[in-house]
Amino acid sequence: MQKKFGYLGGCLVLIIAIIVGVGLRQRSAHQVTPATAHRPVTQTSHVKTTHVATTKPWIKLKRPLQLPILMYHSISSGNNLRVPKQQFVQELTYLKQHHYRTLTAAEAIRALKTNTIPQKKVVWLTLDDAYKDNTKIMATLKKDHFHATINVITGFTHKTNHLSLAQLKQMKATGLVDFGSHTVHHLDLNALTTAQQRTEIISSKSWLDQHLHQTTTLLCYPAGRANAATHKLAKQAGYQLALTTQEGLASLHEGRYNLSRLRITPGISTATFATLINVHHS
C-alpha cells in the first residue's frame, strides 16, 4: 500500500511539473524580452544634421574693381564731419531701395584682393573715430540688414563722447558692425618718427585683438595722412588694407595701404549721394 501511494505521489509531482513547464513556455512565447520592450524608437530629433548654407559664387570682374567706400564720422549735427541721423537714414534707405549690399571688412578685403564682388551693387560703410553717437545707426542697420565698419581710436574709449569698450563689445555681438584701427591717439602718422608710428599702429591693433577677440585687418590713418614708412609698417603689423581720406573710388592700383574713400558731408541731396556711389562694374 505504501509503495502504491509513493508511486501515485511521484506521478502527481511529475504531472504538476509538466503543466507548470508548459505554462511558462507559452507565457514566454507571448512576451517581449525586456531588452526589446525598452529599446527606444529612433527619433529624427536625435540625428545630428548639418545645415549647408547655399551661397552664390562671387562675380569675377573683367576690369579692376572700383569700390565706393563711404566715409562718415559723427552721426549728429554741428560741423562738416557730422551727418545728421535723418540724412544717414535717408542714404541707407536709398541703398536698400536700389538693392545695394554693404560689405564687411573681410568682404572688402576679398573683393579688392580677388577682383570679385558678391553682386553688382556694393558699398562699404565706414565710420571714423568711434563716436558714442554711432550707436544711433544700429536700428537702421538691423532694419535694412546692413553692415558697417567703425574705426576705433583705442586710447579714446574712456572719453565720454566716444564708444566705451563695453559698447564696442555690445555692438560687435550684433554682427552688424566690425572694427578697424584708427591708431591709439589719432596723431598724424606722417609727422611721427618710424618708432612712434610703429607704436601707434601695433598697439592699437593689439588692443582691439585682445579686447574684442578678433584679428584686426583694417587700419584707418588719422586725417588720412601717411607716408611710405607708414604703408610698410601697416603691412608688417598684419593689416590687410589701410584707408585714407583721399577723395575717390577705392581701387587696388592705388595700393592696398592707400585706399581712397567718398566723404559724406551734411546736407548733400539724395541725388548727389546716388551719383557718388553709382559705379558700373564689368
Automatic annotation (TrEMBL):
GO terms for molecular function: hydrolase activity, acting on carbon-nitrogen (but not peptide) bonds. Its main location: secreted. It is found in: Secreted. It comes from the Bacteria. The chain crosses the membrane at residues 6-24. The keyword Transit peptide does not apply. Residues 121-282 form the NodB homology domain. This is Polysaccharide deacetylase family protein. The lineage of its organism: Bacteria, Bacillati, Bacillota, Bacilli, Lactobacillales.
